[in-house]
Amino acid sequence: MCGIIAHAGADDAVGTLIDGLERLEYRGYDSAGIAVQNGSGIAVHKRAGDVSEVREEIQTAASSGDVGIGHTRWSTHGPPTDENAHPHTSDTDNVAVVHNGIIENHAELREFLADEGYEFTSDTDTEVIPHLVEHFRKEESETIVAFRRAVEELEGSYAIAALVRDEGRVYAARAGSPLVLGLDDDQYYLASDIPAFIEHTRDVVYLEDGDVVVLEPNEAQIFDENGLSVERSGECVDWNPEDVGKGAFDHYMLKEIHNQSSSLSKTIRGRVDPDNGRVALEELDAEILDGVENVHLVACGTSYHAALFGARMLTDAGVRARVFRASEYAKMAGPTTEGTLVIPVTQSGETADTLSALRTATERGATTVTVTNVVGSTAAREADESVFIRAGPEIGVAATKTFTSQVVTLILLSQKIAAELPDATPREDLPELLAALEQVPTHIDQVVETSRAEDLASRLLEYDAYFFIGRGMSRPVALEGALKFKEITYEHAEGFASGQLKHGPLALVTSQTPVFGLFTGDEAEKTITNAKEAQTRGAEIIGIGPENGPGAAESDAYLRVPDTHPVCQNLLANVQLQLVSYHTAKQLDRSIDKPRNLAKSVTVQ
Predict the structure, then answer these.
(1) Are strands 88-89 and 95-103 parallel, antiparallel or unpaired?
(2) What is the mean pLDDT of residues 457-486?
(3) How confident is the model over 356-398, as pLDDT tens digits?
(4) How distant, in Å, are the alpha carbons of 405, 477, 487 from that of 601?
(5) What angle do CA 438, 440, 446 make, to 5 degrees?
(6) Cα–chain center distance at 163
(7) What are the Cα distances from residue 412, in Å, to 281, 339, 374, 415, 486?
(8) DSSP bridge pairs for 295
(9) Fewer CB atoms near the end CB (10 Å): N or C, the chain?
């Protein structure tokens, strides 16, 4: 879950590394550091804290060099201290390494290296890597051979970049953790994610597990797991540098809430035909759905809530569909056959638990179709087919626009599946739903422009806990609303199916427990009834629903959404809840884009 970056080229690497790390802080921000070849060895600058603090230290030290590596950390092994910050070096300071992932056999390697006389100064699993490289350099005449031997000793997941004293190269490898190569004439970049170098190039190569890369200022070489030189196909990503900046907004999260209308327009473009009641997913080969008997959706966090929405759309169409938390899939899925379609839902395409579930499904003979945001991601490459949500880069740790785009993509995919399966029943109102989906971007703009969430937030600061309830398709939105609220406000929030409220949670309701009621969709009336049960116990009811919906009169406060198709009402209610979370967190002076203890892309299990 850390972020790494490397640069080799004619330009000074320092500014590129620091700028890239700032764009990678959504992957971790406990500590940061860089190492550069500066003509007299390897200069390392690192410390606990965020990247801006490292920038100040480096500028003061006036370091420079045309080859370098950098790291921003999300702590796993050891607390966020100066000693545990990356890069880590060998005893002789001849090797410097940055690493994203988990080295599962680090304890055994540490014991072996300690017996060989190597001294450790950190608590991290990463520190074994520079010592291993140094150890094998004593036995090998070529650094690339020593580096490969060191990598072969590692068990677990990793993306690694290393410098060796007096060599103007970066050595890198990946296995289970993301690493992408950026190409720009005589400038080369490596990073955990594209935003790190998008300001310099949009031409990328997605590296594969087992790849070893050697970067020099005028060359980038890729070797496969057998040590053979290979050419990996590249592509130009459809992102602009402006996409990864905050612009005039105070926070990335607020920018990305506002940008949902434009990102969702890209999600929908060319995929809906309301006049003929047809969904067009041209990237999906319809033959892959032949013989499908049931559907499993697997996901984590926000993506799990999107998957719940997709599963409800499928079951309403008569398709047997279940949702699994990806970390539990191997044990909980039950029988998986060739007639099972497994849909991993993952924004990054690199979520470790979801990749594990995808691989389990593949091993069991299931057909797999990934729903993701990143074209060259591991999930996209390993699945039989992929459908992309087209949301563009999302920097804020709390997912906003990617959730909306995931839900809409799953709505479209569910109707495509229903149209292809002989026993399924496509929605009778599909033309109306597709027409309403085309209007959602405009309706999102209306919500953002007219929302009273900021005023409401000032009333929410003194409560003890916050409940979010919904029924049917509004239930995933209630769960997502609670997740957003707890992620960035640090206040206790829980989401429930509204009918579950009286089966236990009602015991926790007091006058200090506001209840957010999702009065949207086809089952709003029952949710209103459940909310009133809490209201009679002293809870304030904050309703979210259509302008003239029945929930308005029953609510102590009411956030309105345009009166559109019941399915789309839930998408718009979600935007209101995002704004509530954002403004509450801002008034509580929370770290909104970098909430404590969290990172965006969870690449370790």
Answers:
(1) antiparallel
(2) 94
(3) 999 999 999 999 999 999 888 889 999 999 999 999 888 888 9
(4) 17, 21, 14
(5) 135
(6) 29
(7) 8, 21, 18, 5, 30
(8) 321, 341
(9) C
Tokens coding 290: 């032949």
Which residues have C-beta within 8 Å of that of residue 600, sequence separation ≥ 6? 1, 26, 27, 348, 394, 396, 397, 399
Dihedrals phi, psi of 187, to nearest 5 degrees: -120, 135
Residue 46 among the catalytic residues: no
What is the enclosing helix (H) or strand (E) of 98?
Answer: strand 95-103
Active-site entry in 2, 484, 568, 594: 2
Distant-in-sequence contacts of 502-508, Cβ < 8 A, 24+ apart: 502/530, 502/533, 505/467, 506/533, 506/534, 506/537, 508/465, 508/467
Sequence-distant (6+) residues with CB within 8 A of 424 are: 317, 318, 319, 417, 418
Q: State the Cα–Cα distance between residues 119 and 121, nearest whole angstrom.
A: 7
- In SS3 terms, 538-563 reads as CCCEEEEEECCCCCHHHCCEEEEECC
Reported pTM: 0.86
CA dist list (Å): 441 to 259, 445, 536, 568: 9, 6, 37, 11
Catalytic one of 484, 486, 586, 600: 600
Q: CA end-to-end span of the chain, whole Å?
A: 10
How remote is the C-alpha of 215 from its chain's centroid?
Answer: 27
Closest CA to 167 of 95, 70, 89, 64: 95
Q: Which residues contact 285 (CB under 8 A, 6 or more apart)?
A: 385
- 78: DSSP letter: S
Task: Say if residue 335 is preceded by a cis peptide, omega within 30 of 0.
Answer: no
